[in-house]
Specification:
Shape: globular
Largest sheet: 10 strands, mixed
Number of strands: 24
Strand content: 25-35%
Mean pLDDT: 91
Radius of gyration: 25 Å
Low-confidence stretches: 1-21, 82-90, 567-572
Structural class: alpha+beta
Number of helices: 12
């Protein structure tokens, strides 16, 4: 057969294979359709440009051909016993391996210094990892089973890793990113309000743990290569030491020799992210501690971008198939499928107690700020009688269950509560609540926590949102990037200002964004405390300090609510 005819036939076969793999989800919220391909897995090492070898699992359709590639720069290769579309089956990330059944090659790579990969993790999403991202894209685009188009998926620490594919030189084969629950600004996400709390320290394990749990690549039955790789991990930077050693945004870590909050932050490289032009789909959750970061990221992207936020936790999606939504996204950008995803509104968000909504802008135009004033145990739209109330910090805040990167349990008995009258009609809040409080303390510094709650007629408490601020970091400053209408604190060393004990000072800070309907007959409540169950390395005073909330004409403490529907008929 002449070479020209052979190449033509190969092109036809390749086109037929791609066409067969484009049976995508029917539309927003649809489940994954029936699988198109059976999948086979292989594992091996991928060499980086500096010679470091990264362990990878490659899931490929058994049907011969060239396919688009989706990369997942993971902290650990986890292998589901079977891939299916059950929500949560095998964990959120392993659900995405399903995409190989629809005409993709799905590659899970352990980042350097993690799992069975060689190398040392100097920091957390440092510049070395960003350079690895380019090498991985170049490798994926040139494999014999690759069609040449590459996408990237990640959630949580791997969501950050996915976005960092865009923070350095972007390989031209990279066509789309699907990233969830990541930090646009690492300090604001990881040390929100200046407080080291419920954010996890990141993937951290000992050499012994890696030897027990890491999966060797094919051909390493004696685990010789695994043992050799894990020896490199002994030099990994301890992440809790890294974060706790930088209480201020501009601190230089002695472990890395750099101001690492900035080095590891996507925001630092915002110009490169935008210049890449690579489309980004962001996943968030109303019960995720990083949800504000999703809206901040969206506000800073100029390329095609979408956002989904549901009533779920960190890297979860309940009965919504996020794999099906990712399939629609990658089908459009990697296969050219005209599936209508880019004709839909930019944002899909679930309003708790009301259902799914859409928007093209955030904050939504229908939302407007309304002040709810704090009084003597009250919270309402009218100014209260002047006064002040005090509480002593309880250093034993506990929850009966774990909280992780989700909301805490009610803390009403640990501080002061300010509660509205029962609502005569439903009230919708969609946007970013802001606490604007006048506080004094018996000590010069400490964290303040504010919790927004929904109180049912029977007294049941639902946690709606929360915010926090370290007292010495209360100074407001201009933001270095776009924000969705929320206050900004520099958290810089030079902007620190201790309290004068007993003297009222203004604390202005955002609570995590919400979309929530308070039903008629319910009340809304703000609880203020001086400790949280999720704090790490808490600094304590003896005796425990006393905090005072002020509310008078000179010190009008208030909660600014993003109101969509008016609480008409509610007394205050």
């Amino acid at each position: 057969m002449p070479p020209t005819m052979r190449r033509a036939l190969q092109g036809i076969v390749c086109a037929l294979v791609l066409t067969a793999g484009t049976a995508g989800a029917a539309g927003f919220g649809a489940p994954l359709p029936p699988a198109v391909h059976e999948v086979e897995r292989s594992s091996f090492y991928i060499p980086m440009s500096d010679g470091t070898r990264l362990a990878a699992d490659v899931y490929r359709p058994k049907t011969p051909g060239r396919y688009p590639v989706i990369l997942h720069a993971s902290a650990a290769r986890s292998r589901p016993s079977e891939t299916d579309d059950r929500s949560g089956a095998g964990g959120f990330s392993t659900q995405m391996i399903n995409l190989a059944r629809y005409g993709y090659v799905f590659v899970v790579v352990e980042r350097r210094g993690l799992g069975a990969s060689f190398g040392t993790r100097r920091g957390y999403h440092d510049r070395t990892e960003a350079r690895d991202a380019y090498d991985l894209t170049a490798w994926a685009a040139t494999q014999p089973w690759s069609q040449g188009a590459v996408g990237v998926f990640g959630c949580s620490n791997t969501g950050d890793a996915a976005m960092h594919f865009l923070t350095t030189k972007t390989h031209p084969a990279l066509k789309a990113v699907f990233a969830g629950c990541f930090n646009w600004d690492k300090y604001s996400g990881g040390r929100r309000g200046g407080v080291l709390a419920n954010w996890g320290t990141g993937p951290q394990s000992s050499v012994e743990q890696d030897l027990r749990t890491a999966i060797p690549v094919d051909g390493d039955a004696t685990r010789t290569l695994l043992h050799e790789a894990v020896r490199d991990h002994a030099r990994n930077t301890p992440l809790l030491d890294l974060w706790s050693g930088m209480p201020n945004r501009d601190d230089v870590s002695p472990l890395t020799g750099t101001p690492f909050w900035e080095e590891g932050s996507i925001a630092t490289y915002g110009d490169a992210v935008r210049k890449s032009g690579v489309p980004v789909y962001i996943q968030g959750g109303w019960r995720d501690d990083f949800r504000a970061q999703a809206f901040i990221a969206l506000a800073n992207l100029t390329q095609p971008a979408k956002l989904i936020v549901g009533d779920w936790g960190h890297c979860h999606s309940k009965d919504f198939s996020m794999a099906a939504e990712a399939l629609r996204w990658f089908d459009h950008w990697l296969k050219g499928a005209d599936n209508g995803i880019m004709q839909e509104p930019r944002i899909h968000y679930e309003t708790v107690n009301a259902g799914w909504r859409t928007a093209d802008a955030w904050p939504v135009p229908a939302s407007h700020p309304v002040k709810a004033f704090l009084g003597a145990g009250s919270l309402g739209m009218r100014e209260p009688e002047p006064g002040k109330q005090s509480f002593k910090v309880d250093y034993q805040p506990v929850c009966a269950r774990g909280t992780g990167l989700g909301p805490t349990c009610p803390q009403d008995d640990k501080g002061l509560t300010f509660t509205s009258a029962p609502l005569a009609a439903d009230m919708e809040l969609t946007g970013h609540p802001v606490a604007d409080l006048w506080l004094s303390s018996s000590v010069e510094d400490g964290p303040v926590f504010a919790y927004l709650e929904d109180i049912a007629p029977d007294g049941a408490i639902a946690m709606v949102s929360e915010g926090r601020l370290q007292a010495r970091h209360r100074k407001l400053a201009p933001a270095p990037f776009a924000l969705p209408g929320i206050p900004w604190h520099s958290f810089a060393k030079a902007d620190q200002e201790n309290l004068m004990p007993g003297q009222a000072a203004r604390f202005v800070f955002d609570l995590l964004p919400v979309s929530w309907v308070f039903k008629a007959g319910h009340r809304y409540r703000l609880t203020v405390t001086g400790a949280d169950p999720r704090e790490k390395l808490r600094k304590t005073y003896a005796p425990a300090p006393t905090w005072t909330v002020w509310f008078d004409r000179a010190h009008p403490s208030q909660l600014v609510l993003p109101l969509v529907s008016s609480p008409s008929g509610a007394s205050s």
